[in-house]
Prior knowledge:
alpha/beta, binds magnesium ion, 5-stranded parallel sheet, 3 domains, Arc Repressor Mutant, subunit A, 3-stranded antiparallel sheet, binds adenosine-5'-triphosphate, Rossmann fold, 19 helices, 54% helix
Amino acid sequence: xxxxxxxxxxxxxxxxRPYLMADIFDVVESGGHxxxxxxxxxxxxxxxxxxxxxxxxxxxxxxxxTQAAHSANxxxxxxxxxxxxxxxxxxxxxxxxxxYKILKSIRVSEVSIKGIKFGKSKTINYxxxxxxxxxxxxNDKKLIIxxxxxxxxxxxxxxxxxxxxxxxxxxxxRDLRQNHRLLQKTVFVYAGSIGLESVVANxxxxxxxxxxxxxxxxxxxxxxxxxxxxxLCSSNKMTIEEADIEYMLDKILWLIPFNIQLVAQExxxxxxxxxxxxxxxxxxxIENVLKHKKDFIHWQERLEIFDKIEYNFSIDVLNTLSTNGxxxxxxxxxxxxxxxxxxxxxxxxxxxxxxxGYINNKEDARTYHFNSPILRTWWxxxxxx
Length: 385
Ligand SMILES: Nc1ncnc2c1ncn2[C@@H]1O[C@H](COP(=O)(O)OP(=O)(O)OP(=O)(O)O)[C@@H](O)[C@H]1O
Ligand SMILES: [Mg+2]
């Protein structure tokens, strides 16, 4: 297993998450559509690839990253491009191959409420196009369409087009999911590095996604994280005592695979220079992780989705939290009134911070902490001071 801290991982580099895979397939088999709920860097894309790489013959999987799509038009274009991809077409019957050969040669030129227009040809309703496609699949096959960065697409459309266009796309998706002819044979899996729920709540469109089944992508359980860290170190030829693994996990606390990879990567660099690992070396590795601006800056930039008052409030909350280690909800409401922010809006901001992986109040509902002590330290040094 190689140390990879950044790109989605695949094959031998993927630390298996069998329970999570089973959770997902339970929903798939019961005909539900899925929203993968997890903060940034938790491993959503890797998980989607894992599904694609390991499903049995009953399924055909299409994975699309729609991040770059800034309009509904671009979104459908990306999806249909993927559906016309050779690898996918090869899984279809010959009749469908012919259809897609034709579609492939003409680009999507316009998407309207009515459907999708391919070049100069007539408009094809995309639900119809899906139906045609699905009819051409073998009867016993189910199609899993994974839409990664869908929430980013919705946010882009709000920003660069209009709220109405974003709503329309959400509505079209809901219609597709509820189309009886598609229902039995298609499963949509949505994910994104920002919470879809927060994005749609901002435009009062939660009703368009409330049929989705939320599947949580949690951090690793302690024992699993320990096995992962040990395996990562040993397959990278580092000798490490169990006590030092435990020390490292205590420092990381928020046990997402990414955090373990980041520290392992720095340990490997230090180990190369001096092949010894103890708690001082683990501390040094974490110090080195804290120098990676690119791995943290998105936590700050992400807050720009809020309006100015909410933004200032959220920064103030996180600054206080990084300084004091915890913040009681009473103080959060004091900060809200200092910023002249209504209590309900303050609650929405706190909910978004929780949902997007910044903070939690698991131990005591009235007290918040950073999920990640490493992020807390970074925030304290780089944002609060
Ligand atoms: N199952 C896994 N095994 C090993 N490492 C993993 C696993 N899942 C995630 N990682 C680590 O987390 C990093 C991020 O993974 P991935 O890109 O899948 O997360 P993501 O949730 O899609 O992130 P983003 O929110 O930025 O899109 C990987 O580079 C890798 O270091
Ligand atoms: Mg991702």
